[in-house]
Specification:
heterodimer, A: alpha+beta, 3-stranded antiparallel β-sheet, two-stranded parallel ribbon, elongated, B: 141 residues, alpha+beta, 8-stranded mixed β-sheet, 2 helices, 8 strands
Chain lengths: 146, 141
């Protein structure tokens, strides 16, 4: 383990900041990449919890990813989270949302409708957040020691 | 720790309120069944349930308990939000407020945050409001 002196505090602070950034990027990226897109009911699939069912692809592709709600750091599409998660620093506020005009039925698929249960993919992903942060922190610690 | 007991205990926490408001229950496994309004649609979403420890007992699980309040569409939304508020209040009182927990055989349940009432939406012939409770169940034995 590195030993720092008071004179080296700025260097230590920069290092810790980079570690925090890495944890945020890793946990955010793994949370969104971990949401599985599976065949929808019309393709012979079902409604598994934590997944986005895909029939024509509109719902999965309706993902809007934004950093601080700015158009400068905004992207659309199923993989749009990669740009935003990769640009995040610790303390940043990012928004990831599905639905809108492209897939106005997002709420129905998420919570269920017309007698078909929901898949709750957003809630499952959010529920995994504490474990994802713990995992990203452990990874960062291992890399520092290595 | 038996997950069925966790689910039963959470359902029990809203049972009295649902019955007092004459809400027809639709328990998990309702797929393609006709929905009766006013009613509640119960969903359990497991989040994390670690494998059994060396002792052969699962020590904890996290998940989401969702109560979908349904009322007949076209009669306003206030009735649905009234039911949703009452159910949320019952859950908060049972497992969140002032450190309250629900006990069941072999464990306890607490909500990890106050119950969330989400925006409602049209569900066929009904107006539906999701009431969402995130919980953590821990084994006491």
């Amino acid at each position: 383990m590195a030993t720092y002196t008071f004179a080296e505090l700025p260097r230590w602070a920069r290092k810790v900041g980079k570690i925090q950034d890495a944890i945020v990027k890793t946990a955010t990226s793994e949370m969104l990449a971990g949401i599985e897109v599976v065949p929808g009911i019309n393709r012979g699939g079902g409604r598994a919890h934590g997944t986005i069912p895909r029939d024509l692809g509109a719902l999965a592709n309706s993902l809007q990813s934004t950093l601080y709600g700015t158009s400068a750091m905004s992207a659309g599409g199923a993989d749009s989270h990669t740009l935003i998660a990769g640009s995040m620093k610790a303390g940043d506020v990012a928004t990831f949302s599905w639905g809108g005009g492209v897939a106005p039925y997002a709420q129905h698929v998420h919570y269920g409708a017309n007698g078909v249960p929901g898949t709750f993919w957003r809630d499952v992903a959010a529920g995994k957040w504490p474990n994802l942060v713990a995992s990203a922190t452990a990874k960062a610690k291992a890399e520092i020691r290595g | 720790m038996n997950p069925e007991l966790v689910q039963d205990a959470l359902i029990d926490a809203v049972k009295t309120t649902a019955q007092a408001r004459s809400l027809t229950p639709h328990l998990p496994g309702y797929e393609y069944e006709a929905i009766t309004a006013p009613g509640v649609i119960i969903d359990f979403t497991p989040i994390d349930r670690p494998g059994e420890y060396l002792s052969g007992v699962t020590k904890y699980e996290t998940g989401q308990f969702t109560v979908g309040v349904v009322v007949t569409q076209g009669q306003g939304t206030s009735a649905a939000y009234g039911h949703a508020n009452a159910l949320a209040s019952a859950l908060n009182t049972a497992a969140y407020d002032q450190g309250a927990t629900i006990s069941f055989s072999g464990g306890t349940i607490r909500l990890t945050k106050p119950v969330d009432i989400r925006p409602g939406y049209i569900d066929g012939a009904h107006w539906r409001v999701p009431v969402v409770a995130s919980y953590e169940a821990k084994a006491t034995t």
